[in-house]
Amino acid sequence: MASSLLALIDDIATVLDDVALLSKVAAKKTAGVLGDDLALNAQQVSGVKADRELPVVWAVAKGSLINKAILVPAALAVSAFAPWAVTPLLMVGGAFLCYEGFEKLAHKFLHSAGEQAAEHEALTAALSNPAVDLVALEKEKIKGAVRTDFILSAEIIAITLGTVQGSPFITQVAVLCGIALIMTVGVYGLVAGIVKLDDGGLYLSQREGSGTLQRLQRSAGRGILLAAPWLMKGLSVAGTAAMFLVGGGILTHGAAPLHHAIEALAQQAASLGGMGGFLAAVTPLLLDAVVGVVAGALVLLAVTLARKAWPRR
């Protein structure tokens, strides 16, 4: 009896160790999607009244949990009944990441600053117009954010599924559920903090009093107000770069000849001496990013041609 109990405890410990290890690997691989998810959702709630920001974030977070409640069982079904589909799904997810990243770059360079400013002014005017139904506008923002989350959540689940492919079923369930919950809580917890960052800065900057603490609080508040826009820009840039790195990495790992070629170049870089170790570590990342940019451009071209051939009504 005692030996059976110890064997059971040992099995449980082994499973938990595998779950922790695979969750760590999956979290690293999905970091690019996480950065983009964070930036996109923080931007989605922009334009909402300050007192409605947190309720909107909470509504989108609940929608994200529903998305993952659909995607996790679907991923487990694919793993159980069609394991051959995991790699193609990963390749599709990687190509979509690259496409989304390149589309963001194309949008930035093909649209002038004046056009972007006009869009912002139109949104500001709509919010200040009493004739505009703000409840309907808020619902549309939530729907748009949940739709975006579904795509990004699908990419996260697909990448995680590729990580746990070949593991026991119970390990797959634990890792997929764990990553789904961690990503949801992490993303929307950070989004809530980011969207209220300017409110916190404003509160601190308006603190009254002539004491040292009050002066420090006012300085900190002004610093937060100055840093908040740059934080959003930094998140957007980091998220875009990570999309090319992660998406390109998925594509190169799925294409064996390309993956072997990149490994050979990394080994050649390692043999250079001096900076060889650094070059060996950087070379695969740079080549993954190049593959991601090229793949994103090709997919965007294909999508653009398809839209022209079959325009929407």
Secondary structure blueprint with pairings:
Blueprint lengths: L1 H28 L1 H14 L8 H29 L4 H25 L2 H16 L5 H31 L4 H27 L1 H9 L6 H43 L1 H15 L5 H34 L4
Helix pairs in contact: 1-6, 1-7, 2-6, 2-7, 2-9, 3-6, 3-7, 4-6, 4-9, 4-11, 6-7, 8-9, 9-11, 10-11
List the uncertain runs.
8-13
N- to C-terminal distance: 71 Å
Structural class based on helices, strands and sheet pairing? mainly alpha
Mean pLDDT: 74
**Biggest sheet architecture:** none
Question: Can you describe what's shown?
Answer:
The chain is globular and about 65 Å long. The chain has helices at 2-29, 31-44, 53-81, 86-110, 113-128, 134-164, 169-195, 197-205, 212-254, 256-270, 276-309. The protein has a domain at 22-236. The termini are far apart. The protein is mainly alpha-helical and 313 residues long. It contains eleven helices and no strands.
